[in-house]
Design brief:
224 residues, alpha/beta, Phosphorylase Kinase, domain 1, Rossmann fold, 2 domains, 5-stranded antiparallel sheet, 12 strands, 33% strand, globular, binds S-adenosylmethionine, Fibrillarin, rRNA processing
């Protein structure tokens, strides 16, 4: 074999140029991604063009604190492409609450959740976090991940962090500049959005997601 598997973070591996997670549901792909078997384990290649978290890791994220057993709130679940990899990472002792406003995406997402019991689907509006509190109550959320294409991305993120993220919990906010303004420079939008977070988060890293995602940045922070 011409490749090896090396660990980057808890549950995240490098295989050649690619990153990958160990498949929790062996023998199946989620979004037609490649699967690779190595020393008795099956890995799913994590496509950075289809996942902001995957892109941020490929761009050299320094620390990734979602690991086995983590409880994660994920806003903008869509059909669950990124969540499927987080599901591999957190394993059977972890849980991911995936919120999305689109009933159409939710139908495909629910199919994924049936195969992966550590994902809880929530059809809801992330800008109104109290509307889904009955699903989450009783859990202490270790990490909040957000990928919603909305104008008020930082506000939505902060509302959810206040409601659910534990103190010193980690936040991963993917900012899409063009959902906020069509004319301002992406750099200035990223600065403004990051500034909104500074009162409540210690900013650990800001990672530009180019070339995988144009005019997107991932902000990683720790809740104060
Ligand atoms: C770019 S896609 C997310 C892709 C997904 N994070 C992934 O990596 O697989 C953005 C998603 O945000 C959802 N969305 C937009 N506004 C929302 C809101 N207010 N509450 C919840 N979801 C929202 C959309 O329905 C869409 O599915």
């Amino acid at each position: 074999m011409g490749f090896g598997v090396t660990r980057i973070f808890d549950g995240v591996y490098r295989i050649g140029q690619n990153i990958a997670t160990q498949n929790m549901v062996e023998g199946t792909s989620v979004y037609s991604e490649q699967r690779i078997s190595f020393e008795g384990k099956e890995y799913r290649i994590w496509d950075p063009n289809r996942s902001k978290v995957g892109a941020a890791i490929r761009k050299g994220m320094k620390e990734f604190l979602i690991g086995e057993g983590s409880k994660v709130l994920y806003l903008g679940a869509a059909e669950g492409t990124t969540i499927s990899h987080l599901s591999d990472i957190v394993g059977k002792s972890g849980v991911i609450f995936g919120v999305d406003i689109s009933a159409r995406s939710m139908r495909k997402f629910i199919y994924l959740c049936e195969k992966r019991p550590n994902i809880v689907p929530i059809l809801g509006d992330a800008s109104q976090p109290m509307t889904y509190k009955e699903h989450i109550s009783g859990f202490s959320i270790d990490a909040l991940v957000q990928d919603v294409s909305q104008k008020n991305q930082a506000e939505i993120f902060l509302k959810n962090a206040r409601a659910y993220l534990k103190r010193e919990g980690h936040g991963y906010l993917s900012i899409k500049a063009r959902s906020i303004s069509a004319s301002e420079s992406a750099e200035s939008i990223f600065r403004q959005e990051t500034k909104k977070m500074e009162n409540e988060f210690e900013i650990l890293e800001t990672i530009p997601l180019e070339p995988f995602e144009k005019e997107h940045e991932m902000v990683v922070g720790k809740k104060k």
